[in-house]
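Key idea: predict the complex, not the pieces.
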Amino acid sequence: MSEPPELRITRRAVPTSAAAMRHALRAFLTALEWEEDAILDIVTAVGEALANAIEHAYEDATEEAREVTLYARAAGDGLLSAEVRDCGRFIERARRPGRGFGLRIVRSIASDVSLETKDGTSVRMLFDTRKMHKAL
Amino acid sequence: MSDLRVIALHGELDIARRDEARFALRADGDVGAVLLDFADVTYADSTILSTLLVFTREMGIRGVPVAILVGTPQLARIVQYAGLSDILPVFNERSDALTHLSEGRR
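Result:
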């Protein structure tokens, strides 16, 4: 039995890395031949987690520590688990007046979302393409 | 519509282009209505939504209607996912956007 398709990509946590990591995810999902609507939404949600990590996580960190990792793993039946991990500090959305849409967007798209803030921040997302798009 | 301002952006609007978007979407000058022509925008993230929200609110205080013309469904959908559909007026057709502006002008 072959292993489930996986994507793992690590980049410096700088703003220009977000697009490169989204493009890699899009190429990965396109290779799975999933529907364009599902790809669009998954890239949107993961893009929010990436943007949040890049924007907030490293404000106090040294240059050497500025990395963000995206890991995605496809399972059968249209399921995808994805994780965005950084080693910076988590900043609660209440401290950012006028912001905070990112996590709301992620939660609107993903079937399940969990955050872990030990030794950095990890945002884990589960996408079920069979249940997506029905909220709109 | 003689005092219509059209602001066009293109490509992927994400955290890397936040400052560019903020500069483009500054509420200055005397204008009757604003069309944000994002027909060639292929991706937008929440950092851009925040900029759009601030701009739309500032123009609203001045009584200036704003319409956002989109080309990709991603932009329309992220507005919905963020719960901003009632605040950010998004249109798929230019004619609908212009009608919205005509009806909302001072």
